[in-house]
Amino acid sequence: MFISSLLIAAGLLLADMPDTLATAVVVADKGMIVSHSDTIRISTQVDVSEALSRIPALVVGDLGGVAGLKTVNLRGLGSAHTAVYVDGVRVNNVQSGQTDLGMLDIGSCSDIVVDYAQNSISFNTSKPQFGSRKFVGSIMFRGGSFETYEPAARLDFKLSDKLSLSATASGTFSKGNFRFGDNSRRENNDIGQIRAGVDLWGRMERGSWHSKVYFNGVERGTPGSSDWPSADRQKDRNFYVQGVVQNRFTSRYTLNVSAKAAYDDLSYFSEWGDSRYQATGFQLNTSHIFRLATWADISVAADIHRDDLKATDYNAGRTNVVSVLSSMFRLPKFKADFSIEYSGIFDSGSKGISILSPSVDFRYGISDALCIMAFGRRAFRAPSFNELYYPGFGNPDLRFEDAWLMSLGPQWRKQISDWSVNAGADFYFNAIKDKIVSAPSEDNPSYWYPYNIGKALMYGADLQTGLAFKKGDWATSLSAAYTWQGTKDKTPGSSSYDEQLPYVPKHSLTLSLDGSFKGVKLDLIWNLRSGRRDSYGEMPDYNTLDITVGKDFSIWKRNSLSLKLLARNITDTRFELTSGYPMPGRAFYCTVAFNF
């Protein structure tokens, strides 16, 4: 609580300073400009995997069902190379390197931002909207297939003109078992999960601050693969407190500070022996933005992260020190960000490694509707503790991933009366040396062994187009997004030379239709994934269709009731995102929400 209290106190001390900065630069982590990004609005999704499926360039990993581990990787780089943020602060998992997105309360989020230049996914908590009231809230209940029940509640309090508080709580309870294949049944897939959080929001004359306390507790089965089923169990406890302060001291100087303290406790219960992982993490992040002129800024950022893991079979610690120098230029038709990043990574008992990473990011406006965007960046990824030290399966000889990321493409947007039209293409190329991959061992697919691929290339194209209409009570939009990805092992002499890397589809297509009229809403999304393979060969293609129908009712004065019917995988497609871990077939859910 000390870190959160310190940031709250800093915000209150700065609250009376007058605002003299006319405009603010919108920046991401380490003071860099966000220019290559997509934003996913949270509306009808059941879970985070479903929300992220709207971006074809994302590969979602899911071990099947509501209890399955859920991860994401961007443009074939791997889930451990894709950073995850909550409200601007990074979520670390040095044990496995993969953030389980199931721990996040997606119902309290307003949107998800995918930043291609920084290779990150950001989940942003929705800020309270009071209007003329001082208290608002909502109570929600969802139930449906596989005996799934999900209650949730949120209360927002306006404490003053500059201070508000949000309290959230949600639960997921499901037996989770479902049929797959030739009438086989997925067993030991149950889950009991509780999430709770408190957010404190503050406004200052020259900025704002946000403090957050969050808890996630879950007990679930880990059914193993369909070929190697298990009765193992898993228990997680995640707790963190974090805060962010953004303040514009003068028209030429802006300070951003964030800090976090986290504790994660994960226990496995297995017939082969129990194990426990207790991780603590601390981070302090700062960036200083100096306005040199109306068209030029310079940013200096410094971060320090410390993570320690106490496990049943090994202990490990890591310190990560990062500093970044960036320059930002904004001309009428041209915007650019040039930066150089130093990162020092030091594991306990090792001499560590120091890395320099340059990057460039620019946008050129050809006209009011058409622009060209591009970026280039060097990025590194350190092996996780499990990849290095896990007894019997860790590989202490793993090398750091060294990647070069590049992208170039046009974006076009046009507003024509009540219609808006957009289209875009983004062509990208990623080259990775010593890419770390993990594959199930042939002796037991439940165990994965990590190793380096000498060289890997990822190249592809993201193509998007959309059409939207809004007039009066009627609003509708139609969008299509297609991604072609080539991800090849280019290591000379490799047994998988020139083959597609595991689980990255060559072709990803998403079609979505959204419409609303006088409180009636329809959402339809169709996903196709093809050209995938695992470490043994080709995987079947699959497509899914999801439909949501809802209606909002105004009751009493300012209160409302929302009803939604959700049909997921309505064609009952049987598929696997990870080999041996089947996904559920057809599922139905009903949601009732009371807003007051």
Secondary structure layout:
Layout (H helix, E strand, L loop, with lengths): L1 H13 L22 E5 L6 H5 L5 E5 L7 E5 L8 E4 L2 E3 L17 E7 L4 E6 L9 E10 L3 E11 L4 E12 L3 E3 L3 E3 L4 E14 L2 E18 L4 E22 L2 E17 L5 E19 L2 E16 L3 E16 L3 E14 L5 E13 L4 E12 L3 H5 L11 E16 L2 E22 L7 E24 L2 E16 L17 E11 L2 E11 L2 E2 L2 E2 L3 E14 L3 E10 L7 E3 L2 E2 L4 E9 L1
Parallel strand pairs: 4-7
Antiparallel strand pairs: 1-6, 2-3, 4-5, 6-7, 8-9, 8-35, 9-10, 10-13, 11-12, 13-14, 14-15, 15-16, 16-17, 17-18, 18-19, 19-20, 20-21, 21-22, 22-23, 23-24, 24-25, 25-26, 26-27, 27-28, 28-31, 29-30, 31-32, 32-35, 33-34
Descriptive notes:
- By secondary structure, the chain is mainly beta.
- The protein has one domain (2-595): Maltoporin, Chain A (Beta Barrel), CATH 2.40.170.20.
- The protein is 4% helix and 63% strand.
- A hairpin with a 3-residue loop joins strand 31 (542-555) and strand 32 (559-568).
- It is globular, with a radius of gyration of 24 Å.
What key attributes describe this structure?
disordered N terminus; Maltoporin, Chain A; 596 residues; five-stranded mixed sheet; 4% helix; 22-stranded antiparallel β-barrel; mainly beta
The overall average pLDDT, rounded, is 87
CATH class: Mainly Beta
Structural class of the secondary structure composition?
Answer: mainly beta
Report the C-alpha radius of gyration, rounded.
Answer: 24 Å
CATH level-four homologous superfamily name: TonB-dependent receptor, beta-barrel domain
Strand percentage lies at over 45%
Shape: globular
The name CATH uses for the topology is Maltoporin, Chain A
Low-confidence stretches: 1-28
Number of strands: 35
Helix content: under 10%
Could you describe the largest sheet, including whether it forms a barrel? 22 strands, antiparallel, barrel
CATH architecture tag: Beta Barrel
Task: Supply the number of structural domains.
Answer: 1
Helix count, DSSP H or I runs of 4 or more residues = 3
Distance linking N and C termini: 31 Å
